[in-house]
Amino acid sequence: MELERESGWQLHPIGGETGQAYMGTRDEERLFLKRNSSPFLAALSLEGISPKLVWTKRTGNGDVLTAQEWCNGRTLDKNEMYMTSVFNIIRRVHGSQSLKRMLLRLGGTILNLTDLYERSLIDLAPDLRNHPLINEALMYVKDNLPEEENSEEKVVCHGDISHKNLLLSNDNHLYLVDWDSVVISDSCFDVSQLMERYIDPLEWDSWLDTIEFSKNRESREKVYWYSMLNLLEDLKHHHKKQDYIRMNNELLKLQTILNQMKN
């Protein structure tokens, strides 16, 4: 492989949708290698949010190859996502002004409420668009659009909060990885993904109380609104993958959320 020759490392593909990630081995050394990762990775490495960046190299075909320390550990289980440490690392990202300045310098995407709503309509398959429950949900989010945050209040958001993107090292350090979806947006964007994907909707209020997020009614309605939009995105994803079991489970969750929001 040309990439192996240029990098000097033997590459072993790591599972993932992009096919850009590898374990690199050379003698007894191991590194995590990725093609065309965001330049933002260097800032994340400095703040200890992602594993240490070792080097960056441009290959002959114009690709950029980044190498990070290989972290012995594991990704989190789904039933560990409620842990306070998960929210805390997300809060660290949201609270970092240096990360925000860096992402703005790199031309990072600013995601507004209306952008998120319009994105939910893009490529929506006809059978989803015509589904009564999804139609009701789309009407609800359109009619209850929250007030937009100003640019100063927006923060760096990971954009794809998943147990697969949280790595717990053997020395008990939690890292947030895979930053291909990073945006500047409302903090509700990340928190609602975590909540929608891993917390029982009937326990949302008590969980938000525990992490001390969205303390008043207006802000709580806002994080619920974001949760519904994220759930619609997940429904689209499962439908595209023809994963109808997960899609049906998400429809049941959507019904529960709609009932809570209307009440």
UniProtKB/TrEMBL annotation:
Which Gene3D superfamilies does the record associate with it?
Answer: 3.90.1200.10
Q: Which domain of life is it from?
A: Bacteria
Q: Which Pfam families match?
A: APH
Which keywords does the record carry? Kinase, Transferase
Q: Residue limits of the Aminoglycoside phosphotransferase domain?
A: 40-212
GO molecular function annotation: kinase activity
The name of this protein is Thiamine kinase
Originating species: Alkalibacterium gilvum
